[in-house]
Amino acid sequence: MRIRETGPVRKGWGGVLVAGLMATSVATARPAAADEWWPWSGILPEEISCAALGLPGRAGAWPLPLYSPDVGIGLLTMPPVPPDVAARLPRRIELRTDKGGFNEVWQYALLDNNLYIKAVAGESGWRIPPVPNCLRGQITGISVDGSRLMATGPEGWIYTLESADWTPELWWWTKRFGAPIWLDPSGTRVRPGSQAWSLSWLNPRYVQVLPFRHDGRWTDASGHEVPVGGAGVTTVYVLSPGGDRIAILDPWLPAGDPLHPEISELADDYSYELPGPLNGRFRAINLSSSGSTTFVINEYGDMFTRLWDFDISGADTLFFSYSYEDQSAFDAAPNNFEHEFSRFPQLRPPFNRYADIQLPAPDWIRQPKISGEITSTISIHQTGAHSHERELRVEGRDGEGRTGFWHKPIDPNADWAFTVTDQPQQADTLDNRSGDTSHLTMSPPTGVDYGYRDAEGWTVAIRDFDYAGDRITLRLCDAGGACTDVAGHLASDTRMSWQREGLSDMPRKYHGIVSVTAEEMTSLEQRAPRLHALVDRLIGEGRMRNITAEATTSSLSLRTSDGEEIVMTRSG
Q1: For the packed helices 518-527 and 529-539, what is the interaxial angle rounded to 10 degrees?
Q2: Plot region of 536 (φ>0 → left; ψ -120 to 50 → alpha; else → beta)
Q3: What is the pLDDT of residues 408-428, one digit of tens each?
Q4: What is the rounded CA–CA span in Å between residue 547 and residue 217?
Q5: Beta-strand relationship, 233-239 and 246-249
Q6: Distance CA 355, CA 339 (A)
Q7: How far apart are CA 323 and CA 343, in angstroms?
Q8: CA geometry: angle at 211 spanning 210 and 216, to 5°?
Q9: Is the pTM of this model over 0.70?
Q10: Is 119 exposed, middle or buried (0-12, 13-18, 19+ CB in 10 A)?
Q11: Cβ neighbours, 10 Å, residue 513
Q12: Residue 165 · residue 146 · CB < 8 Å
């Protein structure tokens, strides 16, 4: 969603009476209010309300309940909006933006910094949902994906609504965000000046207890349908002011620095990033994310999508097993618990040896351009439990000038179709030129170069290193000047402490591989025997070797699994 300038969480059935009294009161444009820890009162003073939202509670907790979206008695407990407010709200929310969103049960809209809700099915009309007193009239943006809604308040602080696809009597709000496991009371924020932000919720979708079953799956590089992790994956993707960097905010990863809450520059942790298209040089003007899939567009209508989150990237070695080796000989685990137990040989049997998650992570996919009028308002949403079940939408006009949206499945071979809505456009029309125009707005290369010269005369270098990139190229040359490129793949290491974004004196740590193909080794053996011997020494007979890496502003070190270490110094 593009940024524009501009209840109870644990109410339980005991709070139904309070909600009923609210519903019979005189409806106003100002939402009803309730707080996580005082459901019997319905309202806390603003200062106490804000503080209470940082306390431990149900929101973000694990294990999650069974997947069962339901309106429940919500339409009986939420008062209708006054007619003058209803006239200013859209008839229907079709696009996920910072002013509106939807899931299987509810449509959400933001108007005058207040939240409104309407059932997806039927003609319920817009209603006034319960919102913490801390947020009444203070919401600057929203994003909805499945059972979660995130709202930004003053200065971009993020608030999470749990169970957003249930009846409001079971909602839970929190400001907590960050390690450990969503318990950091200091929270996090979408930085002012960010071009766009979007919530993604990859849901395990627990549907049965005996026998245990959940439906949430995503497809890795080997084609295996991998079960979604036990607690799901919640991610906020934030597009930088320049449009060429995408930070990820994950409530299980570090948020702000809790030791220095008074320092504004330490109020968030933007050090983890989703590597952007075209080696991080694509300049997007908007993004939308759903189910761990991100959709971006530039000012000329070029579009890319990528299935990627912290778990999928290969970074979450604490909870998952990954491999760059071919996993096609093994079956995918039937559920996340068996996948977890199968990691430990001492637990087999009774658990089988299932496939590790195949790396590298799926790359960006270029989506076909739309032959028609479009704007920068883009949207992606889940249409099923599997990662290939996603729909893309782009605001625009048809050939007759009627407003609506272009849409298609995420499959790049699928065709675009148009649905008329006759709703006002939310953004200006783009210069949607035909053909690939990505190069017209690309950022320059990073200019960050590292190199090493050995006493024996051979060299290794990396040019235009991107600290957020997951693919690198090592240029290896022997003492005689014969050279070859060696491919590398990197994933960030997991850490539980705050770190600055970008390169600094604090090392950024990675793990990954370097590899060459058998064809390249055969070619080297014939044309450059000394270089062949060097590559063989560094990479080994398997043509692939695990590495760890550390990068700072002055150096980049690589360590192979057999103890070889190369420290390259910064030259650019």
Answers
A1: 140
A2: alpha
A3: 999 999 999 999 999 999 999
A4: 29
A5: antiparallel
A6: 8
A7: 12
A8: 110
A9: yes
A10: middle
A11: 21
A12: yes
Beta partners for residue 323, in sequence order? 358
pLDDT digits (tens, 9 = 90+) for 300-357: 999 999 999 999 999 999 889 999 999 999 999 988 888 877 777 776 666 678 999 9
Alpha-carbon dihedral angle through residues 470, 220, 246, 108, given to the nearest 10 degrees: -170
Q: Residue 8's pLDDT band (boundaries 50, 70, 90)?
A: very low
Tokens (6 digits) for 448: 């960050």
Kindly state the tokens that stand for 446: 């990073």
Token pair recorded at residue 483: 């050279």
Q: What is the DSSP string of 62-127?
A: SSPPP-----TTHHHHSPBPPHHHHTTS-S---S-BTTEEE-SSEEEEEETTEEEEEESSS----B
**Number of neighbours of residue 333 by Cβ within 10 angstroms:** 24
Instruction: Give which of 137, 153, 169 is closest to 23, Cα–Cα.
Output: 169
The pLDDT tens digits of the residues spanning 227-282 come to 999 899 999 999 999 999 999 999 999 987 767 766 777 789 999 999 999 999 99
Q: Are 199 and 144 in contact (CB under 8 A)?
A: yes
CA distance 342 to 182: 26
Q: What number of other Cβ atoms are within 10 A of residue 544's Cβ?
A: 16
The number of CA neighbours under 13 Å toward the Cβ of 498 is 18
Contacts of residues 422-426 at CB distance under 8 Å and 24 or more positions apart, as own/partner, are 423/90, 423/91, 423/94, 425/375, 425/377, 425/395, 425/397, 426/95, 426/97, 426/99, 426/375, 426/377, 426/395
Q: Identify each DSSP E strand in 240-368 by its residue range.
A: 246-249, 273-274, 286-290, 293-297, 303-307, 322-323, 357-358, 365-367
For residue 362, how many C-alpha atoms fall within 13 Å in the half-sphere facing its CB?
A: 25
Chain position carrying tokens 């890319």: 304
| 104: Cα within 13 Å, side-chain hemisphere | 14
Spatial separation of the C-alpha atoms in residues 248 and 77, rounded to whole Å: 36
357-358 vs 322-323, strand pairing mode: parallel
